[in-house]
Write a structure and sequence with these properties.
- The chain has 5 helices and 7 strands, in the order E-H-H-H-E-E-E-H-E-H-E-E.
- The chain is of the alpha+beta class.
- It is globular, with a radius of gyration of 15 Å.
Length: 161
C-alpha cells in the first residue's frame, strides 16, 4: 500500500468528520473533537486545529483519504496528532504517515499524548522514535471520564533515538 501526505482540501473534511465520529475510533483514541460532534461542532474543532497547526496533512492510502496528521502548538511545546480511519488500522498506515509528517516538521522536541491503554498508538509513536516522558491524567471526551495518558517526546533529528 502506498502512503502519502498532501495538503488538506475542503473535500476531505466530510471524510474526516466521519472518521473522527466513528464510535469505536473515538473510544480507542479517547481524545479528539469531544462531545456530540455534528458538522457544526466539527467545523469549530477543525478550525481550532487549523489555527494552531504548523503542518496539517491529509493521509492517503493508495490515493484514498485514510486520515489526517498534524503538528500543532507553540514553539517548544509542539505536539503531533494523527487520526487514521478504522478500516486502515493494523496495516502500517499510521506509522508511515507519522514518519512522513516528521520529515516535514524537523524541529525538536516534539511531543505526543496517547491514552495509556491505547497500545496500538503507543507502538506507532515508539516506532517513530518517541519515548515515554511522563504519565498524566486527563479528561477524555471520547470516554466521558478522566483516564491515564502517556506523554511522549521525540528529541534529536528524525530517526534519531
Amino acid at each position: 500500500m502506498e502512503i502519502a501526505l498532501r495538503a488538506v482540501r475542503d473535500s476531505d473534511l466530510p471524510v474526516f468528520h466521519r472518521q473522527m465520529t466513528d464510535p469505536e475510533a473515538v473510544r480507542m483514541a479517547a481524545f479528539g473533537p469531544g462531545g456530540p460532534c455534528g458538522p457544526e461542532a466539527f467545523a469549530v474543532y477543525w478550525q481550532r486545529l487549523c489555527d494552531t497547526s504548523d503542518v496539517l496533512r491529509t493521509v492517503l492510502a493508495d490515493g484514498a483519504v485514510a486520515g489526517t496528521a498534524a503538528v500543532y502548538g507553540v514553539a517548544g511545546e509542539r505536539e503531533v496528532t494523527y487520526w487514521i480511519d478504522r478500516a486502515y488500522w493494523g496495516r502500517g498506515v499510521a506509522t508511515a504517515a507519522l514518519r512522513g509528517l516528521l520529515t516535514e516538521a524537523p524541529e525538536r522536541p516534539l511531543y505526543a499524548r496517547a491514552a495509556a491503554d491505547n497500545t496500538a498508538s503507543l507502538r506507532v509513536l515508539q516506532k517513530c522514535g518517541f519515548r515515554e516522558a511522563a504519565r498524566a491524567r486527563g479528561f477524555a471526551d471520547g470516554r466521558g471520564r478522566e483516564i491515564d495518558e502517556v506523554v511522549l517526546i521525540l528529541e534529536g533529528r528524525t530517526g534519531e533515538r
